[in-house]
Amino acid sequence: MRLSFLYEHTLYLYLYLMPIIRSATLQDIPSIKSIDQLLFQEDSYPLFVLRQFYDISAKYVKVAEVDGAVAGYIIAHYSPEQAIGWLLSLGVLPNFRGRRLGEQLMAACVEEMANLGAKEIFLTVHPDNASGLHIYTRMGFEVREEQSDYYFDSSPRRLMSRRFSG
């Protein structure tokens, strides 16, 4: 009787509370938009851009699913010709922060790109984004340069990258 309870409890934790990192489906795009809008407000991507990211790089659009709902996402792109990747956007719902969903999403993309022969993976981050900088540094990314007007709107960014030896 006790073993059955433990098994059911473990199964419940695995299926409903443990995050599942998976490739996004087209049906996930509205959830990604909702998270992006909540986190980045007026700087969020328009829905049509998210759809185009999906069309161009579906393999590198991933979600973290918790209890059957999308709790976070990452959008990335990999160019095999250049052996260079870009992490374009990462977002985790506030009530799921602290569970390392962002790291798990990044790790899934970085690992795939590295296995395909990536020489370097880039990202940009606002200098005030302490949680992002912490995650990116912990994941092996280093600041390569700082730009005070990255988006031509006086918005500063740090260009970070992680290099791989080939």
Describe what this molecule looks like in 3D.
- It is built from five helices and seven strands; from the N terminus they run αβααβββαβαββ.
- A seven-stranded mixed beta sheet has the order 1-2-3-4-5-7-6.
- It has helices at residues 2-17, 29-40, 47-57, 101-115, 130-138, and strands at residues 20-23, 61-66, 69-79, 84-92, 120-125, 142-147, 157-163.
- The model has no long low-confidence stretch (mean pLDDT 90).
- Helix 2 (29-40) crosses helix 3 (47-57).
- By secondary structure, it is of the alpha+beta class.
- Helix content is 38%, strand content 30%.
Short description:
The protein has 5 helices and 7 strands; from the N terminus they run H-E-H-H-E-E-E-H-E-H-E-E.
**Residue share in helices?**
25-40%
Please identify the structural class as seen in this structure. Answer: alpha+beta
**For the largest beta sheet, what order do the strands appear in spatially?**
1-2-3-4-5-7-6
Q: How many angstroms does the end-to-end distance come to?
A: 53 Å
Q: What spatial form do the alpha-carbon principal axes imply?
A: globular
Q: Work out the strand percent.
A: 25-35%
Tell me the major beta sheet.
7 strands, mixed
Number of helices: 5
Name a few traits of the molecule.
single chain, seven-stranded mixed β-sheet
Topology, element by element:
Elements lengths: L1 H16 L2 E4 L5 H12 L6 H11 L3 E6 L2 E11 L4 E9 L8 H15 L4 E6 L4 H9 L3 E6 L9 E7 L3
Parallel strand pairs: 4-5
Antiparallel strand pairs: 1-2, 2-3, 3-4, 5-7, 6-7
